[in-house]
Amino acid sequence: MSRLVFEFLKPERFLVGTVGVPGEREFYLQIKGESFGKQTLASFALEKAQAAALADRCRQMIREVTPNLSIPVADLAPLETPIESEFALGVMSLSWTPQEELFLFEGQSMADPLTDEIFEELINDDVPGAPPVVRARLTGEDLLIFARRTELVVNAGRQPCVFCGGPINPGGHLCPRANGYRRQN
Predict the structure, then answer these.
(1) pLDDT of 72-106, one tens digit each?
(2) Which domain holds residue 69?
(3) pTM as predicted
(4) Of all helices (H) and strands (E), which one includes residue 46?
(5) Number of domains composing the chain
(6) Chain-centre distance for alpha carbon 22
């Protein structure tokens, strides 16, 4: 069986968004654009920490490769529907391709859908049974827009407690630094 590949060259949208209320949000990387000759909208589940780490890596790559980019306006539109995850992202990679002068994002499925084998590194396409993968070739502006929006999305969650740093739920939380007394916003 051949590997499932989602391949985007300069997609129209490359962004992180959420579904649900703070504390119960599900994070998705959504990519919209042409893939293998047809218009495609694909969503991939990921964790909040993965989204934040990817945004940090995008900023770092921009500083190293194209430091003089102006900061574009963030894409604040909601995720497009339907939002159905193709797979959960595990290993992700961001690299610079000098011959194309584009950044290459690669995100691989966390586990093989048939065997549930967990993958801790990117697997080549020619390896039999390689897990699904998504690839997108992006400009520096695309990365800046992504990083800006991701920062806003990640920070839009529950407010942290000023004493312990843990998230405060709408009904407050039991703060370990306050000997178990309930703290409110």
Answers:
(1) 777 889 999 999 999 999 999 999 999 999 999 99
(2) 5-159
(3) 0.85
(4) strand 38-46
(5) 1
(6) 17
